[in-house]
Amino acid sequence: MYYCCGITEKGIRPHNEDAMMLGDIIKTEGMVQDVLSGPFLAAVCDGVSGENAGELASRTCLELLADTPYEARVNLKRRILEIHTEISEQSVMQSSTAGMQTTLCGIGIDENDVMHCYNVGDSRLYRYRNSTLEQISRDQTLVQMLYEEGTISIEEKNSHIHRHIVLPVIGNLDAEPKPEVSAYPDGMRSGDVMLLCSDGLSDYVTPFEIEEILARPKPLPQRVRDLVVQALSNGGKDNITILTIVRYPNEVPVPNL
Which tens digit of pLDDT belongs to each residue from 215-231? Predict the structure, then answer.
């Protein structure tokens, strides 16, 4: 049994190019809550190209993903590349959709409670376990590549002038994205919090601040709202999307989170 809640917020921007998906629910504004059993998919998208094109790319990506009849045998990498092809073909059909692209980061819980993480771009998946936050996904960015090559240090990575340059994402017409899909056979432990977010959170709220907020003795939806408030108070200038998933044993009622 998985309790899930999330929020997507335009922040100070006039449009929200982010979107989130929980099972077959897609939200481009406001909050979502649900209790699910596997199999299901959950994901966050951050649209690229501004205004209508970015909004359309993120929403379309999640609509196509939600139509996927997910189970253990589904090849997520192949499905993500099929979605990329559909969005890139749509982007050249009219001027209003030109250049539409989106990041994608999510998890899949199959019928055996095996968890898969999938990622394209710089949206992120964190795991909060035993009061410690760990980034599970790998940023597909120029500075991450330079860091892994040993060209720059961790300090330079966090302040690099090109830290916002993202490698090819879904819909890119010049190069095919490289979806990263990883299996976690042990799934989620009881009490784990998986946190999916756009860079509107991760660029403005430090891991330490996320840990501190998740540790607060408040219902989970309130802690999610607190994360949004923290991003904005830290000078956040981007859309903010956060989706959390918590596992509880089937025989134990979900507490008042």
Answer: 999 999 999 999 999 99
Reduced to 3 states, what is the DSSP secondary structure of residue 64? Answer: helix
In the beta sheet, which residues pair with residue 44?
Answer: 20, 105
Separation between Cα atoms, residue 240 and residue 46, nearest integer Å: 9
Count of Cβ atoms closer than 10 Å to residue 146 Cβ: 17
**Phi and psi angles of residue 73, each rounded to the nearest 5 degrees, phi first:** -80, -10
Q: Is residue 177 over pLDDT 80? A: yes
Mean pLDDT computed over 70-74: 96
DSSP structure class, residue 166 = B
Cβ pair 155, 222 in contact under 8 A? no
User: What number of other Cβ atoms are within 10 A of residue 24's Cβ?
Assistant: 11
Q: What order do you get walking across the sheet with 30-36 strand by strand?
A: 30-36, 2-9, 240-247, 193-197, 124-129, 132-135
End-to-end CA distance of the chain: 14
pLDDT beyond 80 at 165:
no
Residue 193, beta-bridge partner list: 128, 246
Least Cα distance to 246 among 257, 236, 235, 231 occurs for: 257
pLDDT given for residue 156 in this prediction: 61
φ, ψ for residue 88 (rounded to 5)? -65, -35
3-class state of residue 162 by DSSP = coil
Cα–Cα nearest to 183, from 245, 118, 229: 118
pTM here is 0.92
Per residue in 99-111, pLDDT (tens digit) is: 899 999 999 999 9
